[in-house]
Amino acid sequence: MVDETFDDARVITSSDSAQSTQAEINEQMAGITRDYEAAGAEETQPRIDYAPYRSSILRHPTKAPRPVDPESIELWSPAFGQRDVHTLESDLTIQHKGEPLGERIILRGKIVDGDGRPVAGQLLEIWQANSAGRYVHKRDQHPAPLDPNFTGVGRAITGADGSYEFTTIKPGPYPWKNHFNAWRPAHIHFSLFGTQFTQRMITQMYFPGDPLFALDPIYQAIVDPAARQRLVATYDHDITSHEWATGYSFDLVLTGTHRTPFETDTTAGQSPEGAH
Amino acid sequence: MTKLVATPGQTIGPFYGFALPFERGEQLVPVGSPGSVRLHGTVYDGNGDPIPDCLLEIWQAAADGTVPDAHGSLIRDGYTFTGFGRTAVDNVGGFSFTTVEPGPRPDGGARFISVVVFARGLLNKLHTRVYLPEDVADADAVAADALLSSLPENERGTLIATREDDGALRWDLRLQGEGETVFLTYPER
Ligand SMILES: [Fe+2]
Questions:
Q1: B132 belongs to a structural domain
Q2: ipTM strictly over 0.85?
Q3: Is the distance from CB of B6 to CB of A114 less than 8 angstroms?
Q4: What's the average model confidence in pLDDT over B110-119?
Q5: What is the pLDDT of residue A137?
Q6: Considering its fold, how many domains does chain B have in total?
Q7: Does B188 contact A255 at a Cβ distance shorter than 8 Å?
Q8: Which of residues 245-274 of A touch B (CB under 8 A)?
Q9: Which residues 6+ apart lie within 8 Å of A53 measured at CB?
Q10: Stated pTM of the model
Q11: Residue B53: which domain range?
Q12: What is the CA radius of gyration of chain B?
């Protein structure tokens, strides 16, 4: 891990970028929704040009991405395994001396590709704020407490059936500087690899019924309501563990693969000798 | 076969720094090792300002052209070539990987390194490629590459690294505006 030791300055910097009100952001988001509904063409990924998320304005490419057939290296993915990730890294509640504060949760799911094939033996990384909505990151200046027993980073290698499981703490919502009184819904960041590098993705998982959904320009940048819903975990009482933790399920689908998968792809995430 | 709809991506946000970068992530091979080459540059926004909160990953063939399949990217031993690198840019948008040039492709095509880009303010990942300048130095080589030959010259240039006097490969990334990098999408059939 790189040097990201926390600089414990309780500084609340002035939000000079926070000029818009929530009402103005809402109005802008509603206008985009109206245009989307009128256009009638389904979108399943976020807009990258979404002005209500202020930081996107200068950071989105203006040209449409160039369609290309994946070639050579793009048809494969880096290989990860237990050499990279210890099995205990999937429990974010045991990384320090004591128990972290907050609501302990078990998060379970499965990763498949666009053809429904399990993504086996691949790297899944998560990171999140603690139960008070604070990240262990030197640039996070939200004056909420750090938890000495919680870092908020987990890793796992998916099982043969594409499954994963994390034990963690439900993160809190936190303020940000997009506009005045802006708050992010509680979320966990997910980073994952498929069997092809073209499937590489980073996303965020949310919790059901969050009152901040309608107000959040990052979540709303996925303009299609059904597509947005795919990022919301489901409360699952079968995962909930007696007198221990509540349970959520969250499945992910990567894009399809472009090559015929080999048998070994689903056992070790590896390509057979000589296949490339 | 019925295609499932892919889960939407989201921005990496500002707070990945304590989670995703790992020790020697930018060193696919040790700095100064035989055959090593530096791939470096700066990431810019639409104002031409460097972006300080961007994460880059590269993925490439080994020096002999094979696709790496060894574990050990996250815990590097200094000997195993895994083909994968990850780095956060620095405070002035700079990045620097140490790697080897990918070996010849089985189909003889122009060699490239695959790149994926994440940043605060960038709502989804971006894919692109960095080609080695010597491989696409003449018109025939460009014509033989499906992607490069489809691009006008100014756009093509955004995908080709520059060879510096010391042998390093220089490649800047522009998310928007003048000289905007060509980004890629891989349509499913
Ligand atoms: Fe976050």
A1: no
A2: yes
A3: yes
A4: 97
A5: 86
A6: 1
A7: yes
A8: 252-256, 258, 270-271
A9: A178, A217, A218, A221, B11, B121, B123
A10: 0.93
A11: 13-108+117-123+163-174
A12: 17
